[in-house]
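Problem statement: downstream parser choked on a complex file, so we are re-checking the raw output for the nicotinamide-adenine-dinucleotide run. The parser issue turned out to be on our end (a line-ending mismatch), but while we're here, posting the original submission so the record is complete.
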Amino acid sequence: MKLAVVEGDGIGKEVIPEAVKVLDALSLPIEKVPVEIGYGKWKKTGYAITDEDIETLKNCDCILFGAVTTPPDPEYKSVLLTIRKELDMYANIRPVKPLAGITGVTGKSDFNYVIVRENTEGLYSGIEEIHDDVAYTTRVVSRKGSKRIAEYACKLAKMRNNNVTIVHKSNVMKSDKLFLDVCQQTAESGDVNYSDTLVDAMAYYLITYPEKYDVVVTTNLFGDILSDMSAAHIGSMGLMPSANIGEEHAFFEPVHGSAPDIAGEKIANPVAAILSIKMLLQWYGYNNEASLVERSVNYTLNKGIKTPDLGGEYTTEELGQAVIDSINSQVETVPE
Ligand code: NAD
Ligand code: IPM
Ligand code: MN
């Protein structure tokens, strides 16, 4: 496997090295290709990402990505969105599952759902018109885009509890009526149980009754917001991994950003990045290794080895090393 490794900016440079060390501890035949992308590169060279970088990413089997900073500069185009679009990675998969020894701010521990976020259109279309007194962003919802994400969600539901919740705002936006219709038809023909909920109410239900959900499918921006909110169930932004999947490419990254407020302090939680490695291994078919990584993360956290976001005093590297130690000792009796 040829894996592109993009650390990016801020804490991306701190958490990705830990994730890579975890991968190395598994001694798999994986060739790593470092790629420099992001705001740091932009400041140095005037380019945050080049055509050559995109080619390199396309030529790898998959990508491990840290986080990038988006400066408030109107000339700056988000590299993350460029990559998702260029590589047509239409499904953003964000599992929300408790970890051992950690109770999130909601106090809930019986949830296990996955947000399936449409990743290429919606309000992220990039079609904008900016004038002095008014600015427009075009929200794009296509039948094709809705169908492929609905199919992904239904396929995933079949492997889980066969239940899909379609989240939308069709009472206000006709674009979401199309999304809803296509998702309903797809679930109906795929024999998947489904219901639908307006996104504002969904924010309330999801935080109050997370145990009721299995697969949550939604449009781009709603998925973005609901996933950060869901990190409150798990316990920190630093605990939530994700996968961006397309027909030809796959890209694994923590859900969190470059966290400029803590960057450089060596206290960022590396677990989201390490669990992104777990998703990568699973995607590639290294299922035993994926489960070993997950068990080792749970074992480590359950022992109380935590970074300050979880109330602990361990550093990024210490937590990363503890996960590696646990992998090396091939722990068997740890909580799922
Ligand atoms: P953020 O996710 O970077 O941080 C939100 C809060 O969570 C901060 O208080 C931060 O300290 C905390 N946090 C995040 N990750 C953590 C970790 N691993 N360990 C401990 N605490 C953690 O969101 P933001 O502050 O809104 O955005 C900062 C920058 O990151 C912006 O430029 C934004 O555009 C960018 N961003 C990038 C990505 C990405 O590259 N995937 C994702 C989100 C935001
Ligand atoms: C995420 C991030 C990105 C998004 C930003 C950085 C463009 O918040 O991956 O959730 O909005 O998709
Ligand atoms: Mn986000």
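For whoever reads this later: The chain has a mean pLDDT of 96.
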